[in-house]
Amino acid sequence: MTLRMAVVMAWRGLRANGLRSLLTMLGIMIGVAAVILLVGLGNGTSARLNSQLEALGTNLIGVFQARGSVSEGGQVQPLTDRDVEALRESTEAPRFVTVTPVKQASAVIKGAHGSWRTSIVGSSQDYPAALNRTVEAGKFFTESQVRTRARVVVLGPEPVRKVFGGVPAAALGEQVRIGSQMFEVVGVLKPNGQQDDLAVMPITAVRTYLVDGGADDRVDQLVVQATGQDAVPAAMAKITRVLMDTHRIDDPAQKDFEVRSNLDLLEQYGEVTAVFTLFLASIAAIALLVGGIGVMNIMLVTVTERTREIGLRKALGAKRRTVLEQFLVESTVLSGIGGSVGVLLGVALCLLGQRFGAAFGDFAPPRLSIPSVFLAFGVSLCIGLFFGAYPAKRAARLRPIEALRYE
Amino acid sequence: MIELEGVAKSYRAGAAQVRALDGIDLRVDDGDFVAIMGPSGSGKSTMMNILGCLDVPTEGRYLLDGTDVSRMTDDELAEIRNRKIGLVFQSYNLLPRTTALANVELPLVYGNQRARRTRALRALEEVGLADRAGHLPNQLSGGQQQRAAIARALVTRPTMILADEPTGNLDTEASHEIARMLGRLSQAGRTVVLITHEEEIAAYARRVVRLRDGRVVGDERTDARPGGAEGSGEEATREIAVGPQREAGA
Questions:
Q1: Where are the alpha helices (DSSP H) in A17-126?
Q2: Which residue of B has its CA nearest to A16?
Q3: Rounded mean pLDDT, B208-221
Q4: Which residue, among A308, A312, A6, has the nearest Cα to B149 in the 3D structure?
Q5: Which residues of chain A lie closer than 8 angstroms to B83, CB-CB?
Q6: Among all residues of chain A, which has the CA nearest to that of B77?
């Protein structure tokens, strides 16, 4: 007996009890659709988190001064301009794109229309590139302005809103008082949703006018831009070597600085969202399992109802294996059809969610996972085989004389 | 050629051992038409199960075309049933929602045979149902259903057609029509074994074997008819049709 004939026979059997077959398929259908939709939702959430993190730059490495004490009583040396120079001048591979110092302070910005306390960032001309920021209006300050301690400032969106009523053009060229000095607004940063309440000025200006009279060469943080995401581990190793050298530390356990990449953060988030997706998928898998039990239930009923037919088939020469195959094919066709419709439903729900999900507020649109589609469909077929196996075995074991006599 | 040698079958019914068949010796030649008769409880059904290879004897040997089938496994028996035995049941046992043609094809499907459609159509022609090939069982009369069942039994060209009370559910006219058809098949060279409790149906056979309490208690040949094998099927049918009356008068 060929598979095609077995499928035709199975189809006839299922058609004979249309409503019952339909209801059983519904169970599998809902399970498969749920797997596809929930995995899609999990993927969507994870994709959104990733894109937010990637917006910060996956090739960025931050260097911080170690907190607390260094083991074996070593003294913590601060990060300084010397470290910046050493990193910039090192000829070792891999190359760095930029090495940007960051010094932080806090001050009140006072303009014509109001004042606002914000965080002040002192940095170099590389700041926008290093932190993935774009200038919305005007220009960022230049290298020569850094060298000459120019009293210029680039405002973030939040101070523009508070001090200039939110119009970037209105702020350009205006003088604002920060601390005891007047600064010219040369540019306005575009919002990035992460850090918008800030004002950036040359690091030399921060040191001279805001912190301690320019005598200090300390920096709070270094941002190093590697050539790409792949170069990050090698770049991190190089940073560690160079800084251990400038800080005269031989034992890596005693280093007084920390090197961290955004990639580390991305990986941590990745793990969290993978667990989240798995959790959603396992809820859906329970629905699928319940559907499978439905298949088994209905196949047991079918085998009992068709005892005489099984007896006849055996009397006409059907072997155990043939009867087994017939009922396995029937349960697999049942769950396979349910699975196919479930795939269509799940994919449709995902697409609908992508199109209309935004209407429900802040909602990460589901992202259809093609492997999950194949997996869910494959699992639905396996469920047919697995939950059909016991009823089919019972059918195959029936003895023809008793089965023929069954009423 | 069918040979039973000392065939016995016992069942365990609760604590008691029931001996349904108690040492049967029987030989049926090719092309013969044998009726097996007996009152209920005589072992007819057990005989049918054993002859039909639906069950195996507890003692003795059953040779079908020289092959001992009495110790075969379930699957081996399934193959023997498929190739060597054409079963006809009292309740026709056609698959519902399946055309007469597809029903007749079924044994060929299980036997992995080729040219199924042509052979099934030829078998339906043989029983005069070619024009009903596309009908479903519930669109056929009882007699027509039983004829379709006979077509299904003979489509594999089996060693023996084994009919178990084939007229039990039919009216008198249809019963005689079925009995005549079995007679015609036997005249065409097929071996037919008919299990029945109706004397007038058994009278169509050329040999009547009587069972009682699991033993053969009578075995007579009744075929002293003229021109059994000659002439067309139609003529043979007419001759056989007068058979029962003559028997009854004798």
A1: 18-55, 81-89
A2: B97
A3: 93
A4: A312
A5: 317
A6: A317
At B221, list the tokens: 């040949």
Q: How far is CA A138 from CA A162, A195, A258, in A?
A: 19, 19, 35
**Is the Cα dihedral A134, A135, A141, A143 positive or negative?**
positive
Question: What mean pLDDT, rounded, does chain A reach?
Answer: 87
Residue B136 is encoded by which pair of tokens?
Answer: 């479903």
Is the separation of the CB atoms in A13 and A328 below 8 Å? no
Question: A41 CB contacts (<8 Å, ≥6 apart)?
Answer: A280, A353, A364, A366
Enumerate the β-bridge partners of residue A105.
A120
Q: What is the pLDDT of residue B233?
A: 40
Q: List, as own/partner pairs, every contact residues A370-377 make where C-beta atoms lie below 8 angstroms and the sequence separation is at least 24, other chains included.
A: A372/A35, A372/A36, A372/A39, A372/A40, A372/A281, A373/A36, A373/A343, A373/A346, A373/A347, A375/A35, A376/A31, A376/A32, A376/A35, A376/A36, A376/A288, A376/A339, A376/A342, A376/A343, A376/A346, A377/A32, A377/A339, A377/A340, A377/A342, A377/A343
Position B143, amino acid: G
Tokens of A139: 């220009």
More confident residue, A68 or A237: A237
The answer to whether the Cβ–Cβ distance between B81 and A317 falls below 8 Å is yes
**So what's the pLDDT on residue A73?**
58
- Here the ipTM equals 0.86
Cβ of residue B78 closer than 8 Å to a chain A Cβ: yes
Q: Which of these, A231, A249, A230, lies nearest to A240 by C-alpha position?
A: A249
B107 interaction partners in chain A (CB closer than 8 Å): 316-317
Q: Say if the Cβ atoms of A316 and B152 lie within 8 Å.
A: yes
B106-141, pLDDT tens digit by residue?
Answer: 999 999 888 999 999 999 999 999 999 999 999 999
